[in-house]
Each structure stands twice: as C-alpha cells, then as structure tokens.
Specification:
By secondary structure, the protein is an alpha/beta fold. The protein has 4 helices and 4 strands. It has a 4-stranded parallel β-sheet with strand order 2-1-3-4.
C-alpha cells in the first residue's frame, strides 16, 4: 500500500492521551502509523514498536504479534488495514468515526470472527467544545 496524503490527520494530543489512559495498554505495543508529530507514540510506554510509511516502515510489512495496537489509522485503505491489524494484534484501539466501522458487511463479519467490538466511546463531542 502507498501513502495517501489525505489519510494524514493530526490527532489532538488530549484525545491520544485519553485513549491511552483509558485502555492502559501493556506488553508489546504497536503504533502502526506514528506520523511526524508522534502524538500516540510519544505518550505510549518506552519500547513501543512503530510503523510510518513516510519513513519507509510500512505497517503491512510488520508481521510480529503484538498485544496492543493503538493509533488513528488511514481511511483510504481501512478494510485491508483492519484485516492486517487482526492478524497481528490481540487488542486494537483506533480512533474512528462510527460510520467507518460499520460501512460494510464484510467488516462486521471480520469483527464477529475476532470477538466483535468491545468498546465505542461517544465522547467525540469533546472535539467540538
């Protein structure tokens, strides 16, 4: 997969911190799309693995199993991104709009196969405050 400029979205720091604090990931952690501002990565525990396509470290080339993935993924390749996430991680935490999560029956079947979705937070209105 190639880099798509429109997929780069700057996550507010307080959102990344809230997600990390809420889920408290431990073990082997991966930030699959670190980005140049490293919003998630800099708030995750030392030793967190990372990928960033603009730095030549493509998520789809990452094959190690991890306990946690946490990030704000690209939307243009969402379905293959989710498939690969499920292949390598036990716990996946992504910042996503609800419509993106449920936009295809195939995605819902994939979620069900892997234990469904454990949590959806409705705090997104904080972004408009």
């Amino acid at each position: 997969m190639e880099y798509v400029e429109s997929d780069y979205v700057q996550t507010p720091s307080f959102v990344a911190k809230d997600m990390i604090k809420y889920f408290s990931p431990t073990g082997k952690i991966l930030d699959p799309c670190r980005g140049e501002n490293r919003i998630f990565f800099d708030n995750l525990p030392t030793g967190t693995a990372w990928c960033e396509i603009t730095e030549g470290n493509n998520f789809f080339d990452f094959k190690e199993k991890v306990d946690w993935i946490i990030s704000n993924p690209p939307y243009s390749i969402f379905n293959p991104w989710m498939k690969h996430s499920y292949e390598i991680a036990d716990n996946i935490v992504y910042l996503l709009p609800t419509f993106k999560i449920f936009n295809a029956l195939g995605l819902c079947r994939m979620y069900r196969k892997h234990g469904w979705i454990k949590h959806i937070d409705r705090k997104s209105t904080r972004l408009n405050s």
